[in-house]
Amino acid sequence: ARPTTAAPPHRNHRNAAIAAARRPKPKIRSKQISNLLGLTSTGEFVEDKVEKQGLRGGLLLEFKKDSERVLLAVTQRPDGKKNWMVADQNGVTSSIKPQQITYIVPGIEKFDHSQIAQFAQKAQDHLDPTLLELAWAELLENNKSATVEEFAEMLYGTSDPLESYCAHLLLSKDEVYFSVLETKGYCSVYSPRPTEQVEELLRRKLAKEAAEKELRDFVQLLTSAKAMPLDAKPSKSSWLTEERIQHRIEALVAYAIDACSSDSQKRVAGTILVAMGMQKTASSALNLLIDIGYFPVHVNLDLLKLNIRTDHPEEVVSAAEELLSASRDIDEANRKDLTHLKVYAIDVDEADELDDALSAMRLQDGRIKVWIHVADPTCLIQPGSILDREARSRGTSVFLPTATYPMFPEKLAMEAMSLKQGKICNAVTVSVVLHSDGSIAEYSVDNTFIKPTYMLTYESASELLYLNLKEEAELRILSEAASLRLRWRRQQGAVDTTTLETRIKVPNPDDPEPQINVYVENQADPAMRLVSEMMILCGEVIAAFGVCNNILLPYRGQPQSNIDVSAFAHLPEGPVRSSAIVKVMRAAEFDFRTPIRHGVLGIPGYVQFTSPIRRYMDLLAHYQVKAHIRGDTPPFSAGQMEGIASIVNMKHRVARKLFSTSLRYWVLEYLRRQPKGRKFRALILRYIKDRIAALLLTEGSYWVPR
């Protein structure tokens, strides 16, 4: 189904209507025109044309009931000094103020209020708006003005009560031909507008009528779409094919997320909601967009409110395509061939961008050597290029239960940057030899070729570790190295903050009842510990490499070595204790010249380096390190990196907030679907205030984040 609207009135029709003000007008009948002789010239004093009319019982008058309603009524009796009690056409008696009166019908005494409806209907039957144009032409030609009663004489040949009221109705509703020259009491004198002004007002009137027709057509589209079954509703893209429809839909979207860019856009949305019989609220706009099928039932409004871009601009995609078709590795001549190593890439099962992989071996002296291989996007992307600027503006890939929005165009990230099983891949490899206590004995940082052997999920890697297979001795060595590192870091004052993390995947979020897959990520899991320790080790080595070679880098620290872990000993070890410790931790800090001790990790310096496809700060570190390896001057100064970091870190905070709110939504949606009355076993992580607490639901191993 595709929404469409009728075409606006043809331009020829509009021109013809405007030209009506210019062409010769038919003359009013001689009986009527004779009354012109007594009319006042527009420049003359008009005091003698209006008479002050006093109020008394039995008069028929018109008054403003409220801002939108005008009623006929009969005066009954005074109500105080100035107000009058009246009986209106609906049979309601009320008190009105003199300023509410808009017209007193002349020539009527002791009118029966039961006859008001009949009188009003007769007046409607007598109305002929085309008479105004004729009267305007005659008065303009003779440079005359007229009262309502004189208009009645001109238009109907009599100023009897009914005809006078008809003339009043025509004039009061007229927005084109006449203006009020003077008003005294309840009587007004009307003057014809100049031709140029009438032409302009006609243009505006026609434009207004066209807009009103467009609105009616649009409301009909909305009403029709609401009535359709879900599988027959118009697609989202079909609402955006015509500009007249698109701008109204965009106004409703902006209204739904409280992000109207102008008062005009706000008025457009409000007018649509009123026309649909709905309240002018953000929730009404949201419900309407869901009802017509433009939004899915489970639309992520935060994605819109936070202005997260879900796709890349055409010029960025084109640049990525061009890079793919003519890609060349600027570091090819200086790469070490490590394709002989067994390489393990371990990540969550839904990972699309594989940034890192691991290798290990035991040296003849018994020490362990590990290799942390990191994807090398900077062999393709140059600082300041269109792809670099796009990645910087995003700051990070955004991971949600429903979708992933990558920092780089998906095809580029998947095909040219990510590590692939069985394929020769470009990498930056950090190799480390460990002392027996887990400290660093020696290291190197090199451009390399690798050939990933396994792509493992955390679950499958943990299973291989449990099986302890001889042919996977390298994986066991990696696990041993991770244990050495963890023990060494704890001796240096590291704080253990491992916990359980809820993970949700919703493969079909646009369905009214989508599938919700809930699982837990246990950070104490052997495979997760292994990967985490190797990533921390890589960050420590890059920081040491930067210090040794005077490289300006985004050194990340957390000066919390004074945290007294024993103060939390009364809490159960695990999620409860970790949650309490995290609450007192200070935020991480950056220095772009020298390392800061990372007290929580228990290491002297740290640089995030292992996710250059997903995080721009990692990519920034790659630019600096890779330039040094080539023998070039690093492209960014400390001041430039600090400016970049302030923007990128803000993007990270937005992405984390979006992830947290989205995760919470889907956990609660999952719980909502559970049978009514079902009881859950839960662990209280901490009290927040009063009777509100953060809970870890132990049945099913998931928790509801705040």
From TrEMBL:
Top-level lineage group: Eukaryota
Keywords assigned: Hydrolase
Gene Ontology MF terms in the entry: exoribonuclease II activity; RNA binding
Domain RNB residues, every copy: 335-631
GO cellular component: P-body
Enzyme class at the top of the EC tree: hydrolase
A GO BP entry: mRNA catabolic process
Classification via InterPro entries: HTH_RNase_II, NA-bd_OB-fold, RNase_II/R, RNase_II_barrel, RNR_Ribonuclease, WH_RNase_II
EC number: 3.1.13.1
Matching Pfam families: CSD_RNase_II (PF23163), HTH_RNase_II (PF23161), RNB (PF00773), WHD_RNase_II (PF25255)
Protein name, entry field: Exoribonuclease II
